[in-house]
Design brief:
The chain has about 575 residues and is of the alpha/beta class. The chain contains 22 helices and 17 strands. Strands 2-1-3-4-6-5 form a 6-stranded parallel beta sheet, with helices on both faces. Helix 3 packs across helix 16, helix 9 packs across helix 22 and helix 13 packs across helix 22. It is globular and about 80 Å long.
């Protein structure tokens, strides 16, 4: 067996030993030996899943979707040159969203770099500070010590990717021709690095801070699978829980605070001061709600904020006063066993405000609009469905108007908050699951139309609801919307897309829904793959949002006056 074949098999088997079971491959010449040997290994290992996506950008976001759902590292593999640069957006997203992505870039050998050879760019630390670590391994080096190094280093770098705060890593593999590996060779032996042992942290200090205090928990986007235990902690200890739409804690039968973005947007200073807690326990990633984040910033130094996000205090609100590096599951389990009680009146106050806002919303959402789509999804999507939300308007509308009648799992690429790769991430999330929904705008769909090929290739079931307002709806809410002479060309950017033609191109079923009945009927249709288009007017959408916020503000003012 030549040393390239042996060393590449060591590398691949080492990755697999550290729970890298999903590989997304974008075909190319320089990666030939890596992907051929991987295909041979996967043939006899059913736990290994290979996905082929010819578009590297789509492939990398598809991998993000896989990892979001599995909570395991996913590897992406590409050829040399600009192919590797197509991963850049997803690597940035993985870094900010704490996704353990293993980026394997194959490269030209040293004698073909920086000398005018084709398909050769500088791939050394190509993604800069967006990766946690970089290593270049010359698998064709004849050194006797190299196999042991490859085994150790490839396992080490995966462990680093999967250690909190999780993130992407890059493995660069310069390869010389000939690139064909040997087949049917014996698998080399590797020494598997054991899993990390994590001790539990004593929580007496935390419980002392919480006892008899006004305590608030904030659940941001979930990075690990702890939502059920967190809701149990909220119920058992009567601790109000602000539920970000991506925290997977939003469930009507559990007492969670689902409407606090709108409260923070519309409440008076007097009311906000009255609901200020003594202590906040903060879980998960950066909140979707800018209003809640701004409230945290304004109260910096006035509230004890314990950061449990395992992100090295990556807190743009600057409100955290202490961080505790412990598994969220471990901490919640320990708090559930501790004997302490918090201020019950504070719990009752916040839950009553939450119910008040929900009632106002229900009265306003009787008219069909973009704002009513989250409620319709809530009423029709089966339990345990996966719902992927696009930036920019869908995730905001779900934050404000989705209550959670059943347990479902909501996702969004909220690291960099971009619209690139949304379709691909959604399909990665959906693979292997039955009931999947994607809420997306027309521009975000246009931005990642290539991603739909993965649905066609792997027959991934998906219902896509496209809100088509012929442009960038979010900009109509921003100050530039007042620049009448330039707004439509520079920010509105209508594309005049024919959504039915996009559906036809990728063999999706298509329907148009512009009222409650037609959208409800389309959502209940059990077609394997479908695109539902909902047309909307951008200016009217702004007015409808302003109308509901004005009504909430009036209701809150009345509440304050009645309780003085």
């Amino acid at each position: 067996m030549n040393n390239m074949t042996s060393n590449l098999k060591i590398l691949l088997l080492s990755l697999i030993s550290q729970n890298v079971h999903d590989f997304v491959i974008s075909p190319g010449s320089r990666s030939t030996p890596v992907v051929l040997l991987l295909a041979e290994i996967a043939k006899d290992r059913p736990e290994i899943r290979l996905f082929i996506d010819v578009d590297e950008r789509s492939a990398s976001f598809f991998a993000i979707g896989l990892s979001k759902k599995s909570h395991q590292p996913t590897a992406i593999i590409c050829t040399s040159g600009t192919a590797a640069t197509e991963y850049s957006s997803a690597v940035a997203e993985a870094n900010l969203s704490n996704i353990p992505l293993v980026v394997i870039t194959t490269d030209r050998p040293v004698e073909l770099t920086n000398i005018g050879a084709p398909q050769a760019i500088d791939q050394d630390q190509l993604y800069g500070n967006n990766t946690k670590s970089f290593v270049e391994i010359n698998v064709q080096d004849p050194a006797a010590s190299l196999p042991d190094y490859i085994s150790y280093e490839s396992q080490r770098i995966v462990k680093l990717a999967d250690r909190v705060p999780k993130g992407p890593v890059q493995i660069n593999l310069p390869l010389r021709k000939p690139l064909m590996p040997e087949f049917n060779t014996e698998d080399p032996k590797i020494s598997v690095l054991t899993n990390d042992f994590q001790t539990k942290t004593r929580v007496e200090k935390i419980t002392q801070l919480l006892t008899h205090k006004k305590v608030l928990m904030i659940a941001g986007p979930e990075t690990e699978n702890y939502h059920t235990k967190l809701m149990e902690l909220s119920d058992q200890k009567s601790i109000p829980l602000i539920s970000d739409i991506l925290s997977n804690t939003r469930l009507e039968k559990s007492v969670t605070l689902n409407n606090f973005d709108l409260i923070m947007k519309t409440a008076s200073k007097k009311l906000l001061d009255s609901i200020k807690p003594d202590v906040i326990l903060k879980f998960g990633g950066t909140l979707v709600s800018a209003s809640i984040s701004n409230w945290l910033s304004k109260n910096r130094g006035n509230i004890e904020v314990i950061d449990l996000t395992n992100k090295n205090l990556a807190d743009h609100t600057l409100s955290s006063t202490e961080d505790i590096a412990i598994s969220e599951n471990d901490l919640i389990e320990q708090l559930l066993t501790e004997n302490f009680s918090t201020d019950a009146n504070y719990f009752d106050l916040l839950t009553s405000l939450n119910y008040l806002i929900a009632e106002v919303e229900s009265k306003h959402l009787t008219e069909f609009s973009e704002m009513s789509i989250p409620r319709l999804i809530d009423e029709t999507a089966p339990e345990n469905s996966n719902i992927f939300l696009s930036n920019s308007m869908p995730v905001r509308d779900f934050e404000n108007f989705y209550q959670g009648k059943l347990q479902r799992y909501l996702y969004c690429d909220r690291g960099a908050n971009g619209i690139d790769g949304v379709v691909s991430s959604a399909l990665g999330m959906a693979f292997g699951h039955k009931n999947n929904f994607l809420m997306i705008g027309d521009l975000a769909l246009f931005h990642d139309m290539n991603g739909l090929m993965m649905a066609k290739r792997y027959q991934i079931p998906m219902t896509i609801v496209v809100t088509n307002n012929n442009g960038g709806g979010i900009f109509s809410f921003l100050p530039q919307s007042k620049a009448d002479d330039y707004f439509e060309e520079l920010f509105g950017t209508p594309q005049d897309l024919k959504i039915d033609k996009i559906a036809e191109l990728y063999d999706f079923n298509y329907s148009l829904a512009n009222d409650y009945d037609s959208l409800t009927q389309a959502l209940q249709n059990s077609q394997h793959q479908q695109i539902i288009e909902v047309t909307s007017n951008r200016a009217q959408n702004v007015q409808q949002h302003q109308g509901i916020e004005n009504s909430i503000q009036e209701a809150l003012e009345k509440y304050v006056n009645n309780n003085n």
